[in-house]
Design brief:
single chain; mainly alpha; MetI-like fold; 16 helices
Length: 309
């Protein structure tokens, strides 16, 4: 007998059903396309970009060209750099002061809100204590309450404490972010395995070291997500500074630009709409830069927990 005769016959490889192979090949190589979804996405994209394009184009116009030219096209004179210089130097450079105030409110307020949300959400997710369900109900209720409903009671309380017309009247309410706390709670529950924490504790690691070296790197996408939300909310905050502040030296950009916009309606006021538009364009540039730089962390933070192995 030959070697080929003595060799055992090999069993044929099991193959997946034809329909399964077709679906698998179609889902990987040829993803399904939706015309309706593409059209809706295009509409949302245009709706979002048109105001930005309008702002960028009109920031290049002078005051006269702004009122006499088509809004979505350039005028004869390109005055962008002149408008930027006038915006930064108008009224003694008050725009720069408003920008510094806004950065202060964002760094202290949004940064503090993110820190408290991370610490509180992690503690609620990984520690058991009496009244945990009551805390959960309070947080959910706080998320459902709009900030404008609490503005007047907050003003009355801060007025009794003598904190109105100071930066603290804007910073302290910003430190509380119920949505950020809830988001970090749910994210910590999924992102940090309890078994990993128990192994670190068995090895003798303290709670601080466990949180700093093990949990914090795993929470990075969620932290960036909460930071972006709180930063945008603080940067665009208008109503709270409106009722808390009277001194223009403590105004944020939102309140200061609105004052410039209303200046034309006052008796003897000067119309500076070109500076308002240029200032608004300069105001949104830091937010665009932050989203572009932190986009990957933000997307991963939103998608965390949506897919499980």
């Amino acid at each position: 007998m030959t070697a080929s005769t003595l060799a055992p016959a090999r069993a044929p490889k099991a193959s997946a059903p034809v329909g399964l192979r077709t679906r698998r090949r179609g889902s990987v190589e040829k993803p399904r396309k939706s015309v309706l979804l593409t059209v809706l996405t295009g509409i949302v994209l245009v709706y979002s970009l048109v105001p930005l394009v309008w702002l960028a184009i009109n920031s290049t116009k002078t005051q006269n060209d702004l009122l006499s030219s088509f809004g979505l096209w350039f005028a004869g004179d390109f005055a962008f750099f002149t408008n930027v210089l006038d915006t930064l130097t108008y009224d003694g450079g008050i725009f720069v002061r408003w920008l510094v105030n806004t950065v202060l409110y964002v760094v202290v307020g949004a940064g503090g809100a993110t820190l408290l949300a991370v610490l509180g959400g992690y503690a609620l997710a990984k520690f058991d204590f009496p009244g945990k369900k009551a805390v959960f109900a309070v947080i959910i209720g706080a998320v459902a309450v709009p900030g404008t409903a609490l503005a007047v009671p907050t003003f009355l309380m801060f007025s009794e404490m003598g904190l109105t017309n100071t930066p603290w009247s804007v910073i302290i309410p910003t430190l509380i972010s119920p949505f950020g706390l809830y988001l970090m709670w749910t994210y910590s529950t999924e992102a940090v395995p309890t078994e990993l924490l128990e192994a670190a504790r068995m090895d003798g690691a303290s709670e601080f070291r466990t949180f700093w070296q093990i949990s914090l790197p795993l929470l990075a996408p969620g932290i960036v997500t909460v930071l972006l939300f709180t930063m945008v909310a603080t940067w665009n905050n208008y109503f709270l500074p409106l009722i808390m502040l009277k001194n223009p030296d403590w105004y944020p950009l939102t309140l200061g630009l609105n004052q410039w916009n209303a200046q034309a309606a006052t008796a003897g006021g000067e119309a500076i709409f070109n500076l308002v538009i240029t200032g608004s364009f300069l105001t949104i540039l830091p937010l665009i830069a932050a989203f572009l730089l932190l986009q990957r962390y933000w997307q991963s933070g939103l998608a965390a927990g949506s897919v499980k192995e």
